[in-house]
Amino acid sequence: MNIKIGTRGSKLALVQANTVVEILKKVAPEISAEICVIKTSGDIMQDVSLLKIGGQGVFVKEIEDALLAGSIDLAVHSMKDVPGETPEGLTFGAILLREDVRDILVSRGNVKLEFMPRGAKIGTGSLRRGAQIQAILPDVIIVPLRGNIDTRLKKIESENLTGVILAAAGMKRLGYAEIITQYLPIELMLPAVGQGALGLQIRKADSGLAGVLARLNHAPTAAAITAERSYLRALGGGCRLPIAAYGLIEGQRLTLEGLVAAPNGISVIRDKVWGALDEAEDLGKRLADMIMEKGGKKLLNLVC
C-alpha cells in the first residue's frame, strides 16, 4: 500500500511527519509513504496576527481540504493546532504517545521567569501564554510573535527581547533542549489543548488505513486529548480568548484541569474534574460548565 502523508513544511512539521513514516515502517512494512508538503494560510501570512486570519485552524484547513479531496491519504497534525470540530468525513485514526506538555522559556543570560526585571519584553504568539504570564508578572511586556521556532528564537536578538515562551515538545523534537532556560510548571502555565500530541487524521471511509493506524494509537493520550477537546468545544472552541486544558492520566484515573482568562491576565478562572478514562468526553463538558459558572461565561460574553 502506498500512501501520501500531508504536512506543513516547517522544519518541525517535517520532523514530525518523518517520525510517523518511521513508526509506520516498523508496524506496517507493507506500507510505503510519500510526504507531501502543503502550505497553509497560517504559514503563508506570517506578518499578520493569527486572530486576524482566523485564529485556530489556520494551520490545518488546507491539509484537511486535501485529505477530503483525496490528494493525500493521511494528515499529521500537532493537536494544539486543530480546532474543536472535525470536518464531516474525517476522523483521527491515531493519537501518538504525548511528548512533554509544558511550555518553556528561552531567555537572555538564562534569566528565569521569577527573576525577570520590570518591563521585561517576553515574546509569544499565544494569547494563552501571554495572559498567564501577565497574571503573575503584570509588569512584563508581552510582544506578539509569529513564525517557526527558529524565527522566534532569532527574535530574542533582532527584537531585543528578554526571552520567548515556546512549547517544550517542539524544542525537544528539534533537538534544542540544551538551550532551554526553564521548563514552566503546569501550575504556573497550563498548556494548550492538545499540546505535545500528534494526531493522524484520515478519511472515515478509509477502513484499511484505519486498521493499521489503530496499532499506533496510544489510548491514555487519546483519552486525555478527547477530554481536552471536549472542554474546548463546550466553551465554543472558536472563541478568541485564552483557553487552556490538560488531562493527566494516572492509572485508570483522568484528571482534567482547565482555564479561561482575560487576555490581559487580570481575570483567570481555573478548575479541575476527575473520573475514569472512559468518561473523557463527559469530563470535558463538566469542566466547561464549572468554569462557566465561576465567571467564564461573563468573560466569554465580553470577548466572543
Outline:
By secondary structure, the protein is an alpha/beta fold. 34% of the residues lie in helices and 25% in strands.
Proportion in β-strands: 25-35%
Query: Which stretches are low in confidence, meaning pLDDT under 50 for 5 or more residues running?
Result: none
Q: What is the fold named in CATH at topology level of the largest domain?
A: D-Maltodextrin-Binding Protein, domain 2
Q: What gross morphology would you assign?
A: globular
CATH superfamily of the largest domain: Periplasmic binding protein-like II
* Overall pLDDT metric: 92
Please state the second-level CATH architecture of the largest domain.
3-Layer(aba) Sandwich
Compute the number of structural domains. 3
Distance between the termini: 45 Å
Q: Helix amount, in percent?
A: 25-40%
Describe what you observe in this structure.
- 34% of the residues lie in helices and 25% in strands.
- α8 (219-234) runs parallel beside α9.
- The protein is built from 9 helices and 13 strands.
- The protein is α/β, with parallel strands linked by helices and 304 residues long.
- Strands 2-1-3-10-4 form a 5-stranded mixed β-sheet, sandwiched between helices.
- The chain folds into 3 domains: 1-95 and 197-217, 3-Layer(aba) Sandwich (D-Maltodextrin-Binding Protein, domain 2), CATH 3.40.190.10; 103-184, D-Maltodextrin-Binding Protein, domain 2; 218-304, Double Stranded RNA Binding Domain.
- The mean pLDDT is 92.
Element layout with pairings:
Blueprint: E1 2-7, H1 11-27, E2 32-37, H2 41-44, H3 61-69, E3 74-78, E4 90-95, E5 103-107, E6 121-124, H4 127-136, E7 141-144, H5 149-158, E8 163-167, H6 168-173, E9 182-184, E10 198-203, H7 207-213, H8 219-234, E11 243-250, E12 253-261, E13 268-276, H9 280-303
Parallel strand pairs: 1-2, 1-3, 6-7, 6-8
Antiparallel strand pairs: 3-10, 4-10, 5-8, 5-9, 11-12, 12-13
